[in-house]
Amino acid sequence: MVSQASPRFLSNFLGDRLALSAKPFHLRSGARGDRRPAYQATRTLCNLVDILFNRRSGDDTPENNPTRLRPGKVSPRLSVPNHIQRPPYVDSRQRPRVNNGPEIHDEKGIECMRASGRLAAQVLKFAGTLVKPGITTDEIDKAVHQMIINHGAYPSPLGYCGYPKSVCTSVNECICHGIPDSRPLEDGDIINIDVTVFLNGYHGDTSATFFCGDVDDEAKKLVQVTKECLDKAISICAPGVEIKRIGRTIQDHAEKYKYGVVRQFVGHGVGKVFHAEPVVLHFRNNEWGRMMLNQTFTIGTCFCICPQSPLAD
Fold first, then answer.
1. What pTM was computed for the model?
2. Does the keyword Hydrolase apply (predicted)?
3. Domain count for the chain
4. Residue 282: inside a domain
């Protein structure tokens, strides 16, 4: 069993939400750049990797803890046909841009967002059917990649900040943004599959956590409560609602089960740009901002069973 000093499992869900409000409300914060540290954490994972893999106690190393997740080999990057439209960041030496303000869609934009979100949901559903003991996350990545390009879309993660794969597969204690590799899934694993597609100039972003074989009750409960938090957060979205209510709603429900909310990862606006305003924090906060007409954003909840984890509250 995994040591109680580290998370047993972590779970991540992301859901797109089209928020409708009566009139625009401009976002503001106490100081310029207040949101940037939390936002950077979704794109720069070095500090997270260091915490998870380099700062363990002697009793929590892979050698002393055989159930600890071990990385496999990462296969070469897959190709995308030239006729498929690519996001601006692909094959660029510049960091992907992040909008400083919310993106508000016109009628055409709304239809494009629905199309990209619909395709992402279809791909995610298909990916979930592949989850079984013995399959590698690399095999899941190849299948997802093929389905996306077959529909004339580009897999958004591929080439984003150097990311080498077309989907994110996060197994057990990997919180999110896991890189598909040669490790076979094992009976009892949980795996979050995060799918984003770029179709007709718009990103559709979604994810879900799946059970592999016979999963124990502890993991099932974590996934169930995480999904409940997502549903509760979506249910309060409405015209003019303060964005910070999402974090309060999520943390209030998670704490009933003594789960820690991982603060290093956030929800975000999505549309023509992969990551945009608003930054959606999943814990209680005092950030300014309200949901706006024809705005799309993700809600992503990451929990760990062990509340004292350095990544949680």
1. 0.79
2. yes
3. 1
4. yes
